[in-house]
Amino acid sequence: MSEPKNLHDTQVALIRAIRTEVGRMDMVGLVTLALALNLKIPMLTMVAGALVVDDSNRANKLTSAYRYPAASGRVFHGSGMGRLVSETEGRLLLDAVTIDHEAADWVESDLAAAGEVVNLLNISRSTHDNWRRASKVIALRKGLRNFLYPLRQFEHCRPLTGLDRVAALFASPEDAWEWLVAPNRMTDGEPPIEKLRDGKFQMVRNAAEGALDYA
Length: 215
Known about the structure:
This protein is mainly alpha-helical. The protein is built from 10 helices and 7 strands. It has a 3-stranded antiparallel β-sheet with strand order 3-5-4. Strands 1-2 form a two-stranded antiparallel sheet.
């Protein structure tokens, strides 16, 4: 009698396992299982937000309906990439929409070596070297040991007042100088260095801090 009992227990355990697994299936999984077992099931249709039985349809229609739901929402169609153009034509198109401004060649203009700065400002070499060591001036590196100095940063034989405090906000002297000579809406559309020349240090500092907040 023990063998039939063990067989019965095994069947019960198997049925329970199947019920547990079926309970986790979605509708597509249930329909697929029913079709695999060759079971006839009624068609379910949606009426007023509820599923109702429709005995006139076959299960394969239900499977198709759930596997391929109707798309909803808006469908957007792009215009594509457009026609291909040659490199020459592409450069011409870019030139047509590119805006040049006077700060574009900031590295190339108004630069002088240390000896030239000393002569132009009529100062001692030690004074100039002290300015550089104390970061009072913007020194753009040229090679390993040499520097170039933008002449626009000087006035009355000395660096513009507040220049060092503004430049210290930037990651490098190059970044600072590029920002200082580019027109800026926070400095009335003028290059910030011109506002420093006008003595408006706080305006320039505020503009620099604002620019770095969005960097």
